[in-house]
Design goal:
- The protein has about 375 residues and is α/β, with parallel strands linked by helices.
- Helices cover about 30% and strands about 25% of the residues.
- The chain has 2 domains: about 200 residues, TIM Barrel (Alpha-Beta Barrel), CATH 3.20.20; about 130 residues, Lyase, Ornithine Decarboxylase, Chain A, domain 1, CATH 2.40.37.10.
- The longest helix is centred in the middle third of the chain and has 16 residues.
Length: about 375
C-alpha cells in the first residue's frame, strides 16, 4: 500500500490499520453474525482509503464488501480485489457495467429487477442480486406492505435468470436508545421473509454499525460495519471503537501580536492581550471545517491551543500563548485521540454541529494518508 513520506509534509492523516482491524473484530464479537461481515467501504472507506482498508481486512476473509457507487466497485476490481462486492445503490443505466465488473447490486424496485433480468439474459448467466426491502427508511427498496405485488415477479425472475443471493433492509433509528423503531422495522422485515417460499431470500442482513453494537438481536445473518470500523460512532453506543484517524499539521510561523490585533478573514477575533499565535498549514481545503473558527481546539502533545479567527482554505491560526516550545515545524493534532477528548473525532463533529461520518468523508485528497499497523 502507498504510505507517503510525511517528513516534510505540511499536513497529513495517520491511519492506524491495526485499530481498524480491532474494531472489526470487536463488532463481530458483539453481534456474532451467523454468516459473517460485509464491511462498507463506500466513499473511499469513509475518507480513510478504500484499497488500504480492504487489504488490511482481507486476512479476516469477510463475506464481501459493500460500496455505494459503480465507480467504487470498478476500482476494486481494477485493484485486483476479487471478493464479492455488493453495490448498494445504482441507476438502471449502470446495471450493464455492474455485470461486466461482476458486482452484485441491491435491487429495490420492479424496473431495476427487470433491467437486471435483461442483463442476465444478454450475458447468458444467472446474475446474483440482493433484494432490498423498505421497512421504514423511505429512500429505496420494495415497500414491505406491497409484498403481494412484487414478490411473484421476483420469484418469476429467479426461475431461470437471476440468483436471489440475499435480502436486506436498513434501520433509520438504530443509534437511538429506544429500541421500538428498530424492532418495528425488524418485525416488518421478518413478516416479508416469512412469506417467502422455503429456500428463497438467501442471506439476511439488516444491521449497520449502530444496530450491530446496540441491538445485535436484530442483526440477522450478516452485519454491514461502516463508521465503527473507522473509529467513529453513531449515537451513545455500549461498544466504543478505537480511534483510527489522526489529522496533524505543522506550524509554518509563530508571531507575537499586540492586544487588539485581529486574526484571519473578517477580523472576527481580537487578541484580548499581548499574545503569541501560530499558523498551522491546514485549512478547509484539507477538510478542517469552518465551523471550528473561534471555537475549535488543537493539541500539541497533551497541551491544548484554541483556534482564533476563521479557518482559511490553507491555514488556521491558533493561540499558543500558554505553551512553551512551539515554533515552525512543531506538529499539532487537529483531529484524533480519544473520542470525547478535545480533538477526538466525535468531539470535533459535535463542535461542528454534524456527525462523525461527515468529518471523515470531508477529509480531502490533498491531505496525504499515512498507513501503519501501530
Amino acid at each position: 500500500m502507498d504510505t507517503p513520506d510525511i517528513t516534510t509534509a505540511r499536513a497529513w492523516a495517520e491511519v492506524d490499520l491495526a485499530a481498524l482491524v480491532a474494531n472489526y473484530d470487536s463488532l463481530a464479537e458483539q453481534a456474532k453474525p451467523r454468516v459473517g461481515m460485509l464491511p462498507v467501504v463506500k466513499a473511499d472507506a469513509y475518507g480513510v482509503g478504500m484499497c488500504p482498508v480492504v487489504r488490511a481486512l482481507e486476512p479476516r476473509q469477510p463475506w464481501g464488501y459493500a460500496v455505494a457507487a459503480l465507480s467504487e466497485g470498478i476500482e476494486m476490481r481494477e485493484r485486483g480485489i476479487d471478493r464479492r462486492v455488493v453495490l448498494l445503490f445504482c441507476t438502471p443505466d449502470e446495471l450493464d457495467l455492474a455485470a461486466e465488473a461482476d458486482l452484485t447490486p441491491a435491487i429495490g424496485d420492479l424496473e431495476a429487477l427487470q433491467r437486471w433480468r435483461g442483463v442476465a439474459r444478454q450475458s447468458g448467466r444467472r446474475l446474483p442480486f440482493h433484494l432490498e426491502i423498505d421497512s421504514g427508511m423511505g429512500r429505496c427498496g420494495f415497500h414491505h406492505a406491497d409484498l403481494a405485488r412484487w414478490l411473484p415477479q421476483v420469484l418469476e425472475a429467479c426461475e431461470a435468470d437471476l440468483l436471489w443471493e440475499a435480502t436486506c433492509t436498513h434501520y433509520h433509528s438504530a443509534d437511538e436508545p429506544d429500541a421500538q423503531p428498530t424492532r418495528e422495522q425488524w418485525d416488518r422485515f421478518q413478516t416479508c421473509v416469512a412469506a417467502f417460499p422455503k429456500g428463497a431470500g438467501g442471506v439476511l442482513h439488516t444491521a449497520a454499525s449502530a444496530s450491530a453494537a446496540r441491538w445485535p438481536e436484530y442483526a440477522a445473518d450478516l452485519i454491514r460495519p461502516g463508521i465503527f470500523l473507522y473509529g467513529g460512532v453513531a449515537g451513545d453506543l455500549p461498544l466504543r471503537p478505537r480511534p483510527v484517524v489522526t489529522v496533524q499539521a505543522r506550524v509554518t510561523a509563530v508571531r507575537e501580536v499586540p492586544e487588539g490585533w485581529t486574526a484571519s478573514y473578517g477580523a472576527t477575533y481580537r487578541a484580548p492581550r499581548r499574545s503569541r499565535w501560530a499558523t498551522l498549514a491546514i485549512g478547509y481545503g484539507d477538510g478542517v471545517r469552518r465551523q471550528l473558527s473561534n471555537s475549535g481546539l488543537v493539541r500539541f502533545g497533551d497541551r491544548e491551543a484554541p483556534i482564533v479567527g476563521r479557518v482559511c482554505m490553507d491555514v488556521t491560526v491558533v493561540d499558543v500563548s500558554a505553551l512553551d516550545g512551539i515554533g515552525p515545524g512543531s506538529v499539532a493534532t487537529v483531529i484524533g485521540g480519544p473520542q470525547d477528548g478535545p480533538t477526538g473525532l466525535s468531539a470535533v463533529a459535535r463542535r461542528c454541529g454534524t456527525i462523525d461520518y461527515e468529518i471523515l468523508t470531508g477529509l480531502t485528497q490533498r491531505l496525504p494518508r499515512r498507513y501503519a499497523f501501530a
